[in-house]
TrEMBL record:
Any Pfam family the entry gives: ABC_tran
CDD domains in the cross-refs: ABC_Carb_Monos_I, ABC_Carb_Monos_II
InterPro entries, sorted: AAA+_ATPase, ABC_carbohydrate_import_ATPase, ABC_transporter-like_ATP-bd, ABC_transporter-like_CS, P-loop_NTPase
Protein name per UniProt: ABC transporter ATP-binding protein
Native source species: Actinomadura yumaensis
Amino acid sequence: MPDQVPAVRLSSITKRFPGVVANRDVGLTIERGEVHALCGENGAGKSTLMKILYGMQRPDEGTIEIDGEPVTLRTPADAIARGIGMVHQHFKLADNLTVLENVILGAEPRRRGRIDFAAARARITEMSEQYGLRVRPDVLVESLGVGDRQRVEILKVLYRGARVLILDEPTAVLVPQEVEELFGNLRELRAEGLTVLFISHKLDEVLSVADTISVIRRGTTVATRLSPDATTSRRLAELMVGSELPTPELRESTVTDDVQLDVAGLTVLTPEGRPVVDGVSLSIRRGEIVGLAGVEGNGQSELIEAVMGLRSADAGTVSYGPPGDRADITHWPTRRRREAGIAYIPEDRHRHGLVLEGSLWENRMLGHQTQRPNVRGPWVDRRGARRDTTRIVREYDVRTPGIEVPAAALSGGNQQKLIVGREMSGDPRLLIAAHPTRGIDVGAQAAIWEYLRRARASGLAVLLISADLEELIGMSDTLHVILRGRLVARVDPGTVTPEELGSAMTGAGTAS
């Protein structure tokens, strides 16, 4: 039974930025000793709300109560002093320091004027065992995997006395085994009386770990304290987007006879001479989406990099264009391929799709900096780039206060829509789409599916790589399976099931 006074209560929280209201009259109650999930689309206002609770931003209106007492949180130090800790999606650890040094940094125990490392080590070891975190104090952080780093971040917050933990998209960078380990840690924390606020748009995960669920849409709470037993992932998704949940599907065929891309016998070798792409042959016609299914690490990334010119082909050919105007582009540089109408949505938008510190209009130019409207003659056309960025923001529903803000200020879903809008501009003839909906919410996902359907209907040829099997099946006209660098099956998206496709991807069976 929860205590009578909740751990946290947010009442009528409103936060405005120039040109946008991020939170409007938000209410949220979190009882002590529970895992409370906060769901919402990318850009719905979840992160802003959590920054307010953590003292990183001040609300324009509304009140915050912690343990029944109204508080004003001006800085994260104020929040920490009140027992509120936050583990950010992007970790804030120093690689060149040990786990112990990272945990105590800024809160070092002292004895006779010196840091008491023995006391710190004893406390860290005790807390690690108490909460089941299995943290080794004396290893360098640079040697740790993602799951271990996340546990260090959690311990760092607990070390400072946090009784309420805010976890911002904690599973976004974890593999399934690490997700299960994290959920085990959360249950240990709850059993020890701690409170966890879990921010996510992965609804199956929310239903498996949360005690109660709240949903925020367009900056406003639309459902609070739902029981996982009394709802479903589909119902949560519909609450998040405000309408019936769309599904990935292509409807009528738009496939033509004109081949836009023809890959023949393509082979890519590692520096040691091992083939990571092994004699791959496939073609994509105008108006066709060709899906590529495979467990990550089976050559998909190397294949698309070879098609884009980011990686050299060791054998085989890549031909581009319809019959009568076809060119062997196997050895063309990436820039020439781009200028010929090949668009690219990379699998890692932060590393390969955006300059996070750059403004939206500067990011609109990336990969297209030699083409109009970004240039006029030899000169950068800032006015043209800004004007076209404004169009992309409008047409692709990129939720932003303006085009001058840095890309880092956008939510993941809005960053992805900006990239999709940029790549769909300039009348491309071929789109390489690598995990176009990875790490984004159902609303942004549905929007990107619709953009792909429209582009396909206008004659665009698309190579689609995705780890979402339902997306691959629903959004592909033709579907190939890649295993250990080879295409091992061609399946019918109209009849294959996710289970059959998954078996073919692992080599355990055949799909039909």
